[in-house]
Specification:
It is a single chain. The protein is an alpha+beta fold. The protein folds into 2 domains: 69 residues, Phosphorylase Kinase, domain 1 (2-Layer Sandwich); 193 residues, Transferase(Phosphotransferase) domain 1 (Transferase(Phosphotransferase), domain 1). The chain is built from 11 helices and 12 strands. Strands 1-2-3-4-6-5 form a 6-stranded antiparallel beta sheet. It has a two-stranded antiparallel sheet with strand order 7-10. A two-stranded antiparallel ribbon has the order 8-9. The longest helix is centred in the middle third of the chain and has 20 residues. The radius of gyration is 20 Å and the shape is globular. The two termini are 21 Å apart.
């Protein structure tokens, strides 16, 4: 990591650059207002760009008041400092994207089932507060640190929005009409490609694609990266998602994954998913496979094997805390 020594908002000392995206950058920083000099993640975006941090800060504060488990803790609500908007957040561990590639490009069934159980709880907590994430992807699920190292956190609320009921009209959302694509191509729900406003079922559809991606290394449409016949990659992916059968999507996977999508696709526009039923089905598959609920993920095992095989100082694998901005 790039070493820094800059003070922001008379409070945060930047020590490491973590990542950057379309709207800004994330740094590891020391909170000088805490006796323990707590390390935090500082998200910064230029004021001349569209303001995503104010909305994101609002949602984190709302989730904190609701005491939702596995949601990022906000240390410093969004404020303007010189040419930047700044938000201070809890410093977390690696993302599922980082860990997937650390483990060779895909994860085992056991690890994915462990992820599914926790992540569905996070989505229920989010939806209980009337919030739709609208950008679920492996990058936006982070592991905790230290004693919370086995806990999955849902982050990056930059595209999130409060859900307002719109009976019978999926194009209507809080008086607005969707007029542009929202999300990340690979994981976006079909509704996003159709420019429909997203709701609970769309978050669940996106998360289903995340699970398939973690298990298989890529999705059936991941290769669509160039314009073909006048269709952009985004349009091609949307068409593929609408055409593909669940048997094709879930090929070579346990039946529980097809059942997951069947439930999600059966939901009406404003209908809440049966989160408990989905968790129970994944738990039943976990038991059927004979897995032990020991919270030993693939990366835990890989780190242990490396530590045994190599000198201690060489075995440590450092992961950056990142909420990939989009």
């Amino acid at each position: 990591m790039k070493q820094l020594d800059i003070i922001v908002a008379d409070r945060f000392k930047l020590v490491n650059y973590i990542s950057s995206g379309t709207y800004g950058e994330i740094y590891e920083a020391i909170d000088l207002n805490t006796k323990s000099r707590e390390r935090v993640a500082l998200k910064m975006e230029r004021t001349k760009l569209a303001d995503s941090l104010t909305r994101e800060s609002f949602f984190y504060e709302k989730l904190q008041k609701g005491k939702s488990t596995g949601m990022l803790k906000l240390h410093f609500p969004t404020d303007v400092c010189d040419e930047y908007r700044v938000m201070g957040m809890e410093l977390l561990g690696p993302s599922l994207w980082d860990l997937k590639y650390f483990c060779g490009g895909k994860l085992s069934l056991k690890t994915v089932l462990l992820i599914a159980d926790q992540a569905i709880c996070r989505l229920k907590s989010l939806h209980d507060q009337g919030i739709i994430h609208r950008d679920l992807k492996p990058d936006n699920f982070l592991m905790g640190r230290g004693r919370e190292g086995n806990k999955i956190y849902l982050v990056d609320m930059g595209l999130a929005r409060e859900k307002v009921l719109a009976p019978g009209n999926p194009m209507t959302y809080n008086g607005d009409q969707a007029n542009s694509f929202l999300g990340t191509n690979d994981y976006a729900p079909r509704a996003a490609h159709q420019l429909h406003c997203q709701t609970y079922r769309d978050d669940m559809e996106s998360f289903g694609y995340v699970l398939i991606d973690l298990l298989k290394d890529k999705l059936p449409w991941s290769c669509m990266t160039t314009t073909v016949g006048g269709q952009s990659p985004e349009q091609q992916m949307g068409s593929k998602k609408r055409r593909i059968t669940l048997d094709e999507l879930c090929e070579d996977l346990p039946a529980v994954f097809k059942q997951y999508f069947e439930h999600v696709r059966s939901l009406r526009y404003n209908q809440r998913p049966n989160y408990s039923k989905l968790r129970q089905r994944f738990a039943a598959e976990f038991k059927r496979q004979g897995f032990s609920h020991d919270y030993v993920f693939d990366w835990t095992e890989k780190r242990f094997k490396e530590a045994v095989a190599e000198p201690a100082e060489e075995a440590y694998v450092s992961f950056s805390s990142s909420s990939h901005l989009s």
